[in-house]
Specification:
7-stranded mixed beta sheet, 16 strands, globular
Length: 301
C-alpha cells in the first residue's frame, strides 16, 4: 500500500489554493518526498504529516518551482536538531543546482543537517524490502528529468480451504508452508507449498511523473500502473503553448493513461489559467477514472 499526500499541486506560478510542487509518499514505515517546492515545510505541517522519519527526497528535475523549498526545510530540521541523514536523489545536473544553492547559503558542505547526494541513472533507486522505487528518464526542456515507479510485490497466501482439505493442522506446519517449505503431515504425506498457496495478489504499482514535454518512450514504465500521477499544465486548446513550455495537456495525459491500462489517473501541476472542472472534463472524456489533485489531498494506492 502507498499513501500519497499532495503538498503542492500548482504549476510554476502558485495560487492561494495551490502551493509549488511536492508530494509525500508513505509505505511500510518509510516517508519519501518527491520534489520540494517553495513552502513545502509549511505544507507538511498544515497537512498533519510533519517532519518525522523524513530522510529521503526524490527530485524530478531542477527547475526552481520544484527545489526552492529545500533550504527552508533543511533550516527547520536543523533548528529541530534533526540528526538523520537526508538523502537527495536527482539527476547530476539537478544535484549540481541543489549543491550550489546550499553552498551559497551555508558554505560548501555546511548545510544545517547531514546530507548525502545520490545521482540518478535509470534503474532501481530504493529497495526497502516491502517496496522498491525505480527511476526512468523523462524529457523536459533540456533538464535531466526523471520519473519514479514505486512497486510493492504481489504475495501468495495460504488458502484455508486447501489446507483443510489436505488435512494440514493449525500450528507450525502452516508457518512452514507460508515460508515456502514443504511439510510432512501425520499420515506421512508430503504437502508442498504449491498445493496450498493461492494466486499472487496485493502487489501495487504507483508511477509519478513530474514535468514532461512528451510521453513518447514512457509506456514501458507506466504500463498496468494502479495509479499514475502526472502533470496536466495546459488544455488541448493551448497545445501549441504546451509545446513551447515543455508540458502536457490534460487530453495527452488522459490518452497516455488509457493506452497503458492505468487503473487511476491523478492530474497535478495545474495552471491557474483554468478551472479544475475544465481540466477534469477534458481528461475524463478520454479516461473516465481521472481525478484532479488538490493541496492536502490524501490518496491510497
Amino acid at each position: 500500500m502507498f499513501a500519497l499526500t499532495f503538498l503542492g499541486t500548482s504549476a510554476s506560478v502558485p495560487s492561494a489554493e495551490r502551493n509549488h510542487p511536492a508530494l509525500l509518499v508513505e509505505a511500510a514505515g518509510s516517508r519519501i518526498l518527491i520534489d520540494c517546492g517553495e513552502g513545502t515545510q509549511r505544507q507538511l505541517l498544515r497537512s498533519g504529516a510533519g517532519f518525522r522519519r523524513l530522510d529521503r527526497i526524490l527530485l524530478t528535475h531542477g527547475h526552481f518551482d520544484h527545489v526552492l523549498g529545500i533550504p527552508g526545510l533543511f533550516s527547520t530540521l536543523g533548528l529541530r536538531q534533526n540528526s538523520d541523514v537526508m538523502t537527495i536523489h536527482a539527476g547530476p545536473g539537478t544535484l549540481d543546482i541543489v549543491v550550489r544553492m546550499l553552498a551559497g547559503l551555508w558554505g560548501a558542505g555546511r548545510a544545517p543537517i547531514p546530507v548525502e547526494f545520490a545521482a540518478l541513472a535509470e534503474g532501481q533507486v530504493v529497495d526497502a524490502g516491502e517496496f522498491t522505487v525505480d527511476c526512468f528518464p523523462v524529457r523536459h526542456r533540456d533538464t535531466d528529468s526523471f520519473g519514479f515507479a514505486f512497486q510493492s510485490p504481489a504475495r501468495r497466501h495460504l488458502r484455508s480451504d486447501l489446507l483443510a482439505a489436505l488435512g494440514v493442522p493449525d500450528g507450525p506446519m502452516r508457518g512452514e508452508l507460508a515460508a515456502g517449505r514443504p511439510v510432512v503431515i501425520e499420515d506421512g504425506r508430503t504437502i508442498d507449498p504449491e498445493d496450498v498457496l493461492g494466486p499472487p495478489s496485493g502487489g501495487r504499482k504507483l508511477v509519478v511523473i513530474g514535468d514532461t514535454e512528451t510521453t513518447e518512450g514512457l509506456s514501458k514504465y507506466v504500463a498496468d500502473a494502479d495509479m499514475l500521477v502526472i502533470e496536466a499544465t495546459f488544455l488541448d486548446r493551448d497545445a501549441s503553448t504546451a509545446r513551447d513550455y515543455g508540458h502536457l495537456t490534460a487530453a495527452e495525459a488522459a490518452s497516455f493513461a488509457a493506452a497503458n491500462n492505468v487503473k487511476q489517473l491523478v492530474l497535478t501541476h495545474l495552471s491557474g489559467r483554468y478551472q479544475d472542472e475544465e481540466i477534469l472534463a477534458e481528461a475524463a472524456k478520454i479516461f473516465p477514472n481521472t481525478r484532479i489533485a488538490a493541496d492536502f489531498d490524501r490518496v491510497i494506492v
